[in-house]
Amino acid sequence: MIYLTDITLYRGTKELLRNANLQLQKGEKLGIVGRNGCGKSSLFQLLLGNLIQDAGDLSMPVSLRVAHMLQETTASSRTAVDYVLDGHKEYRRHQAALLHAEKAHDEIGIASCHDALQDLNAWELQNKAEQLLSGLGFSTTDFLRHMSEFSGGWRIRLNLAQALIQPSDLLLLDEPTNHLDLEAMLWLQNWLQRYQGTLLLISHDRYFLDQIVGGILSFEKQKLLAYNGNYTKYEKQRAERLAQHQQVYEKQQYRKAQIEDFVRRFRAKATKARQAQSRLKELERMVEIEPAHVDSPFQFQFREPLRLPQTLVTLENYAIGYDKPLFQDFSATIRGTDRIGLLGPNGQGKSTFLKTLVGQLEALNGKLYPSEHLRIGYCAQHQTDVLDTSASPLQLIQRLDPKVHEQDFRDFLGSFDFQGELVDSTIAPLSGGEKSRLALALVAWQRPNLLILDEPTNHLDLEMVHALTRALQSYGGALLLVSHDRHLLNNTVDSFLLVRDGKVNFFEGSLEDYEMQLTIKNGDKSLSLPKKIQKKSSNFRNLQEKNISKRGAFERQQAAQRRTELKPLKDKLSKLEIKLDDIHKKLEFIKTSLADSNIYEISRKDELSEMLKQQGELKNILSTTEEEWLLVSSEMEAIQAY
């Protein structure tokens, strides 16, 4: 049993906890949630003994074995297997003692060390380390590679393996799914489900939490609030508590109507798609849990594309890679309405493919035909590394569009929770999550008609991931998404590309089908699957990947009809937007003029009267024009939904 009693904790001058209480039972599995900077990682440091509380008491059993995952590691000449085994401190201690006893010819010491190693099943630990490495995506040739040969993301996986090999009563994992692909994440999910000790898990992946934890510990107003059940149940419980306030309730209903409208549009568009069925259930469930996020500081949207061509990019016999192709002979068309998720293990070419599409890498072969009006918004895994850290968020976004009024930028950044001094201060001291938010804001401002996102949820907290899901649902352009976040994929894309074994094919099936295929392929019968999927497993063995890039004649006919119907509406919408822009400029001029005290002199009475009259007329015209714009937009949306 672990007790935190009336704990107060500061980091610098920031108060993270005030009179907080917590009881951890043996074998509990808790998800730790809260906004970035609220103190989740600091709680771990407190339990590890690296921080001391400012007030209150922390009681932990003296014999408690605690394992945790390091967040950083340096390059070294240690092999991958040796580095993982280093995590088993007791094993290494007895190994060193045995070596010392052998050098001293201490037979009693040698026998004692052998007994201790036997108790640890030391002769099986090498195999256990290799199993952990395999599960986390390392090949057998990686086992003896030096740490210095691995990239930062793979070193984090080694840190995770090192934490898992440690015998522990309490396991602390801080964002373990960052840098994992879906295959490795499913393996880790299964491993944690079988873990016998107490688990505290910080994760921004709601689906991952749902499969593992039986309770949620939430940081709220410097307190630790415990909720029974997984993350989904936590959302419902929190929503019920927040909904007691009338103002919050009204906001909930507004968002509920938005999501229900999205569900209707999605159903109308994709009722016959296999993957639509599971995703619709996800979307409908979101109506119930949405109120739990009503107090989120993130309320952003991707600005609507200025133009949305029917066809954005056409690929012919495309090949990508470095010295040799990762895949080749791929032909496909990306249309303005496509929303595609990329599946496949790390190292198969998903990120390389995206980098080639945006022009950061050259294709090895084939042709790419972009639309004349193609406008790509790209957010890479390591996008934060290329941000100018000497600039402020305001300066970075102003560089994209210098003519825009500063207040418009401030309002937009505010929707990403960049407010006050944070907007004008340099970004160098920002956290990884804050920089990731800023990178998304810069992409969202640019009005892309093809949005390409590579693991966008890394370093984001759950509230921001939820806000990103909402924003992608309402985004009007095409989407290519690489993510290990199954909830994000389920709620934002409507088809999948599978990149694996040197091939790219459209995957006909849902994300659940893909998970089951991985389970069958890996022969992991211990992995827990929903019963409905287990029943389908025998049929699914015969499911073959099909390339559905060639659309049927009926679909092409529908697309042509949509283009015909949309053209006059697009033209009308464009004219209305020009008119709205002109009205806003005139109103802004009047507003500036009215701020000048000289306009209120008696000699300028008639000029003031005329200006106020013109302002009133413009506001009436603005209201009428906005209503017309909304009607045309709704009509276009209805046509595009079918």
* Cα shape: globular
Uncertain parts: 525-556
Number of strands: 18
Mean pLDDT: 83
SS element count, helices: 22
Largest β sheet strand count, sense and barrel closure: 6 strands, mixed
Determine the oligomeric state from the structure: single chain
What can you tell me about this protein's structure?
The protein is an alpha/beta fold and 642 residues long. The protein contains 22 helices and 18 strands. β6, α7 and β7 form a beta-alpha-beta unit. α3 runs antiparallel to α4, α10 packs antiparallel against α11 and α21 packs antiparallel against α22. The radius of gyration is 28 Å and the shape is globular. About 5% of the residues have low confidence.
Give a topology summary.
Layout: E1 2-11, E2 14-24, E3 29-33, H1 40-48, E4 55-59, E5 66-68, H2 80-85, H3 89-103, H4 107-119, H5 125-135, H6 152-165, E6 170-174, H7 182-194, E7 198-202, H8 206-212, E8 215-220, E9 223-228, H9 231-242, H10 246-270, H11 274-289, E10 311-321, E11 325-335, E12 339-343, H12 350-357, E13 365-370, E14 376-379, H13 393-398, H14 406-414, H15 421-424, H16 432-445, E15 450-454, H17 462-474, E16 478-482, H18 486-492, E17 495-500, E18 503-507, H19 511-522, H20 531-540, H21 553-594, H22 605-640
Parallel strand pairs: 3-7, 3-8, 5-6, 6-7, 12-16, 12-17, 14-15, 15-16
Antiparallel strand pairs: 1-2, 1-4, 8-9, 10-11, 10-13, 17-18
Helix pairs in contact: 3-4, 5-6, 10-11, 19-20, 21-22
